[in-house]
Amino acid sequence: MRVLVVEDSPELGRQLVQRLEGEGYAVDLAADGEEGQFLGQTEPYDAVILDLGLPKVDGLSVLRAWRRDGVGTPVLILTARGAWTEKVQGIDAGADDYLAKPFNMEELLARVRALIRRAKGHASAEIACGGVVLDTRTGRVTVSGAPVELTAYEYRVLSYLMHRKGQVVSRTELIEHVYAQDFDRDSNTVEVFVGRLRRKLGVDVIKTVRGLGYRVDEP
To answer: Is the peptide bond prior to 74 cis by the omega test (within 30 degrees of 0)?
Structure first.
């Protein structure tokens, strides 16, 4: 899963990137509204964390521009505590959720997980397929109840495929959602990760759809 953080505070931006990456996300950081608006319009994200008080272009203008251009990525806005008018304006502009500063990092992570789950059509925090269970709250993966240890990138690949359960995901789409913008992307590594996942999971849930990509399905 790939997340865009648009935050002008260097310290908070660093903290958000660090925690999100620690939770298994690929993360891009924009320090002003102009860069954030461009990235949100040109890169595929699974969720966006958007501060409203941004230099160059304010967050509300960024959000309105995205929605006007048909960008439907779930957006969590960050507002000043007690600024209820900002919350109302943000929701009306197309935000999916909001959080007031200062906030608890665990609450933010929970809200991001919920936004992504809902956007992909999953109501539960656990996504299951063919004995494989991915717990989005803990990042824990089990097969028939037994835990499976995955590397960060193996987890990203499995998480994206599980969230898109039953749908064909092309290699290009998978690459775009497991790597951050500045990473040197190589399609061959995706095939390596899929091969490792198949061996570690021990069940045939990741199907290759010839010429199209991969699909997670019941064995």
So the answer is: no
